[in-house]
Specification:
Length: 227
């Protein structure tokens, strides 16, 4: 290790520490952990919000169909309102967290986070507008029950694929592909069977993603704390 003598012992010690490869590596790891945490923490909340919205929302919709003989029956108007509130809540949560995800980081990352967050609201509104237009054009309620879950699955899946490209996150890539697959397969199960499939496989997929990311985040924190 090269030592620089400036005549000031305190300054020399600080300079040596700054040039210490081990200290520089530790600092680099600490900074990378902070960046990862600033990304992972809001992402866990986003995944959890969708797990709740899809897991509970689609299950409530399914239970609102009398023919299903669900052990818990929810009147269809109430089920629709509950589902809509859950989806809107998850969309708003993702929009806010996405915009704030890279706050404090200047440059392209901050811009990407802002656009990513805004995309949730923009894409969701666009999908809803198309659905309303089809309803006005004569689309039946049963067909609407197939269309809306499928279109929102495509929207959500594509947004996660975009997130995977922005942050080079394989987890978002896998989740995006999974959600698109679930949304594409669900209509083949007919109405209202698609609701149950979306609840189990869609909501379950988000729940698994949230747990996996939370475990990974906790593990990385432990590694840093151990030095």
């Amino acid at each position: 290790m090269t030592s620089y003598d400036t005549g000031d012992d305190a300054f020399d010690d600080a300079l040596d520490d700054a040039l210490d490869p081990a200290a520089m590596l530790a600092l680099s790891r600490e900074q990378q952990t902070k960046v990862n945490t600033s990304y992972a923490k809001p992402m866990v909340a986003m995944l959890a919000s969708w797990a709740i919205a899809w897991g509970i929302g689609f299950l409530v919709l399914w239970s609102g169909i009398p023919e299903n003989e669900s052990p818990v029956f929810v009147p269809q108007p109430a089920a629709t309102i509950i589902f809509a509130l859950l989806i809107v809540g998850a969309s708003v949560t993702c929009a806010v967290l996405g915009i704030r995800m890279n706050r404090g980081i200047r440059g392209s990352s901050n811009y990407a986070g802002a656009v990513y967050g805004a995309t949730w609201s923009i894409a969701s509104f666009g999908a809803a507008a198309v659905g309303v237009a089809l309803l006005r054009a004569g689309m039946s309620s049963e067909l609407a029950g197939l269309f809306f879950p499928a279109i929102y699955s495509l929207v959500v899946g594509i947004i996660y694929l975009a997130g995977a490209a922005i942050w080079r996150d394989k987890g978002q890539l896998i989740l995006g592909v999974w959600i698109i697959a679930v949304g594409s397969i669900a209509p083949f199960f007919g109405y209202p069977g698609n609701f149950l499939l979306m609840s189990i496989l869609g909501g379950g997929g988000f729940a698994v993603g949230a747990v996996a990311l939370a475990v990974g985040l906790a593990s990385s924190r432990k590694k840093v704390s151990r030095g």
